[in-house]
Structure formats: structure tokens, C-alpha cells
Design a protein that fits this description.
This protein has 414 residues and is of the alpha+beta class. 24% of the residues lie in helices and 36% in strands. It has a six-stranded mixed beta sheet with strand order 5-6-7-3-8-9, sandwiched between helices. Strand 19 and strand 20 form a beta hairpin. Helix 2 crosses helix 3, helix 3 crosses helix 4 and helix 4 runs parallel beside helix 5. The longest helix has 28 residues. It is elongated and about 100 Å long.
């Protein structure tokens, strides 16, 4: 059927929050409405392989249910020419008491295959799934992978005109996945339509040529699979970064103080010494902090840690481990700390530097600061660090300043 197609024009689907909502008056109509789909419009023609992507709750499965005839749209126009074969859940139509061969034969009968061609088609599926002697055993003893093979084989060999798949393409072992992929491509080359939903962007890129991105019931983007999935991944990553950044910023406002030491100031500086919003890869980075003694303390330890946005520890430096002894501070005395990260090789993203001060084993003060690294020279592997800086960080110097006489005692711990 060369004219098979799917045409959606302003397709919308509304759900109400409870059965009682249906009894509301017209005046209150829409008060508790939830629109799973809103004004969805697209066209799919024969031979196309189209993926549907989006976050959970975006409306993907609702759209497939409407296209498959399981549900009806609230408004809009839907025009489908061709027999729709939905695959929403592998194994849902299997009779566990029957053998694999019997299930395949039943599927052939239900699909409308001519009686004189059923056995030929059954044997074709049997050869395809390659289960050996298990094909004549009850399916209740099958593994989940074996059930998936029989189910998927039945669907493909009934020669569907419009194949609608929800998260089940590529089931089974590697060999069976390869055969399923070839069979799916063969169907599309014969003019069949493939419409697939998946949360795996690699699967969408592998099996489809075109992709429709849906978010909150609306079409966000429709185009080549490679371009749409890349845009979707960037959007998801940006949203995750904003969430993690908000958490990191919240931590910068939390400082533990018991009165021994106060961290007055903390900054991350670029190679030019300025407090830049973004630092370029391979630049020298300095962390500077000012601490003030609120009372006499003799057993202080300073620890500086750096984390990526995803929580990876990139380096940790301790004053006692570096110098070999504890730090003392007098009331009113100011300490200035400088930490150097030479040739910083982090990937693009936000990073958190945390300074902790302990008096013995008790945490007396903590402060964090954020900085953003820009990698404009190499490919970025998300925000994963390219190196671990454990042995490269240098606690350059620690200045002690007496407030009373403005004299400065310098202690070089390099």
C-alpha cells in the first residue's frame, strides 16, 4: 500500500483528575483538566522510520495509544491509512501453556495470513527466533529473553504496515538484535512505517532517520534523528546542571561556625588574577581565602577539596598533611590562604571548591565557592575530569596577619 500514512492535525488529549470531575458544571469545566497532548501536528509517510522522544510524562505513550486505537483524542484530526500493529509490551499476548510453535501459529491465524501459507510463515518465524528444541516446549518454562524473541518474531513476520513500538525494539541477545534490526529495515524498505518510542537516544539514532521531540504534550522539535536527539540531550544536561548548580549554590550559603575561626572571604581567581566568571582550560587557577581568629586555637587543620558538579572528588589538600603540624591562630589574627591549580585541565562545567577548618576533630568553619571552566579546545565528555589532581595541587603560602600591629609573618609551605 504505497499511500499509507499517519497525519495528525492539532491532536489533543485531556484527562480529568477524578471521576467526579465529569459531573462538574460547564462553568467549572477545565478546572482540573490535564492535557497530556496539546495541538500535536505532524505527518509520517510510507518508508519512514520515526522516533518519538521526551521526558517521562511528556505524552509519548499517550500519543502511541491514540495512534494504535487504544484511546481516542479529545480534539484534533487523525488520519491513518494502513494497518497499525502496536507493540506496547513484549509477551502480553502469549499463552504460557502453549508451546512456542503453537503461539506463533495462533499469531499467524489472527493476523489474517492465508491458510495455505500459515505453516510456511510459522517455519520462517521458527527459523528466525532459533530456539532449537525449546520451540516445542510450553512457553511457561521460557526465559524472559526467549519469550521476547517469540513475541517480536511473531510481530515482524505478520508483515505489519505501520509498526508502533514502545521501548521494546532490539530485544534478546546480540545476534537476535542484529537480525531484528535487519528485518525492521527490510519492512521500511518495502514501504512500511516504523514509529518507535525510546528513552535511549542511541537506539533512536540507530533505528530511525527522523525524530519528534515531545515535551509537556507539545512538539518541541521535528527533524533528523541525529540533530533532534543531540538537542534533547543538551536540554536534559542543562536542566540537570541547573538543578545541581542550585544545590551547590545552596551549600555556599551554609557555613558552620563555632566561634574559633570565621572564613571571611573566599574566591577563585583566573590566570590574570581576576575573579572571572569563566576560566579557560589549561589556565592557572588560584583559590584565595581569608580567615579570622575569633578566639585562641592551637590545633587547627585546613582542608581544601574540589568537586565536579556530579560529585566527583578531583583533589583534596590538607594543611597538616602538607606541613606536618597543626596551625594555631590568635584572637583577632587574620590568615590568608592561597592554593594553586597549575594548568587546570577540567572539562566544561561548574566546579565547587570547599574549604573546611577543623579544631582537632570538630568542624569549626566551612565555606564553598563555585567556578566555571570553559573547554574550547577539546571534545567534552560531559563534565568528567580528564585528570586527577591529587599530587599536583600546591598550598603555596599561608600568611598570618596581626590586627594590632599590622606586621605580617609569612610561612611558606610550598
Amino acid at each position: 500500500m504505497c499511500g499509507m500514512h499517519i497525519k495528525c492535525n492539532k491532536l489533543s488529549k485531556r484527562y480529568l483528575s477524578s471521576p467526579m470531575a465529569y459531573l462538574k458544571t460547564v462553568a467549572k469545566k477545565g478546572e482540573e483538566d490535564f492535557w497530556a497532548l496539546k495541538d500535536i501536528s505532524f505527518q509520517i509517510h510510507h518508508g519512514e522510520r520515526v522516533g518519538i522522544i521526551g521526558r517521562n510524562g511528556a505524552g509519548k505513550s499517550t500519543l502511541l495509544n491514540i495512534l494504535s486505537g487504544y484511546s481516542a483524542q479529545t480534539s484534533g484530526e487523525l488520519d491513518i491509512v494502513g494497518k497499525v500493529t502496536p507493540v506496547m509490551e513484549i509477551g502480553s499476548s502469549i499463552n504460557a501453556e502453549a508451546t512456542g510453535r503453537e503461539n506463533i501459529r495462533d499469531a499467524a491465524r489472527l493476523s489474517g495470513i492465508q491458510a495455505d501459507k500459515i505453516e510456511e510463515k510459522v517455519q520462517e518465524v521458527v527459523d528466525f527466533v532459533a530456539l532449537g528444541e525449546y520451540i516445542d516446549q510450553p512457553m511457561k518454562i521460557y526465559s524472559s529473553g526467549m519469550i521476547a524473541k517469540v513475541s517480536f518474531g511473531c510481530i515482524l513476520f505478520t508483515e505489519p504496515e505501520i509498526l508502533v513500538i514502545d521501548e521494546v525494539l532490539g530485544v534478546g541477545d546480540m545476534e537476535f538484535k542484529a537480525k531484528s534490526e535487519e528485518k525492521t529495515k527490510e519492512l521500511c524498505q518495502k514501504g512500511k512505517i516504523l514509529l518507535m518510542v525510546s528513552h535511549s537516544m542511541s537506539t533512536i539514532r540507530k533505528y530511525t532517520d527522523r525524530c519528534i521531540w515531545i515535551d509537556k504534550g507539545r512538539v518541541v522539535m521535528d527533524g533528523p534523528s541525529a540533530e533532534v536527539t543531540a538537542a534533547f540531550e543538551l536540554a536534559v544536561k542543562a536542566e540537570q546542571e541547573q538543578h545541581m548548580l542550585a544545590q551547590m549554590e545552596e551549600e555556599t550559603r551554609n557555613s558552620v561556625v563555632d566561634g574559633a575561626v570565621c572564613i571571611c572571604d573566599m574566591q577563585v581567581l583566573g590566570a590574570d588574577g581576576g575573579n572571572s566568571a569563566a576560566i579557560t582550560i589549561h589556565s592557572d587557577v588560584r583559590v584565595v581565602a581569608a580567615l579570622r581568629g575569633e578566639r585562641q586555637a592551637e590545633n587547627l587543620n585546613l582542608t581544601v577539596e574540589c568537586y565536579s558538579m556530579r560529585g566527583y572528588l578531583l583533589f583534596r589538600q590538607s594543611y597538616i598533611e602538607k606541613v606536618g603540624k597543626a596551625l594555631s591562630v590568635a584572637k583577632g589574627q587574620t590568615l590568608r590562604l592561597t592554593l594553586n591549580i597549575p594548568d587546570c585541565n577540567f572539562n566544561t562545567g561548574w566546579y565547587q571548591v570547599m574549604l573546611s577548618v577543623r579544631d582537632g576533630n570538630a568542624l569549626t568553619a566551612r565555606r564553598t565557592v563555585l567556578f566555571r571552566m570553559v573547554n574550547d579546545k577539546y571534545y567534552n565528555y560531559l563534565d568528567s575530569p580528564q585528570v586527577y589532581y591529587r599530587n599536583r595541587i600546591k598550598l603555596l603560602k599561608l600568611h598570618k596577619e596581626e590586627v594590632t600591629n599590622e606586621s605580617t609573618e609569612k610561612q611558606d609551605t610550598n
